[in-house]
Amino acid sequence: MNNPQQEQNNDSESTEVGNLVSTTELTLEMTTEEVAQAVKNSAHNRFHRSRNWQSGDELKNGKYIIEKELGRGGFGITYLATSARGELVVIKVLKDELLARDDFNQLEEDFVNEAYKLNQFKHPNIVPIIEVIKDNGCWCIVMEYIQGKTLEATVGERNDYLSEGEALNYIKQIGAALKEVHAQGLLHRDIKPQNIMIREDTKDAVLIDFGLALKFNRNPVVNSGGLSHGYAPLEQYQLNVIWDYYTDVYALAATLYFVLTKTKPISAKQRASAKKLVPAKDLNPAISQYLNQAIELGMSLDPASRPETINIWLELLEKNERNRLTWKVLSVLLPLGLGLFTTYLFFEKTPISSDWELKLGKSIEKECTINDLHILTQKCHHEKYFFTGNKGEQTIIEMNSDEIDPLLILMDANGKEIARNDDIDVNNQNARIIIELPKDGIYQVNAQSSQEQESGTYTIRRVTAN
Question: Distance (Å, rounded) from C-alpha 385 to C-alpha 330?
Answer without folding.
Answer: 30
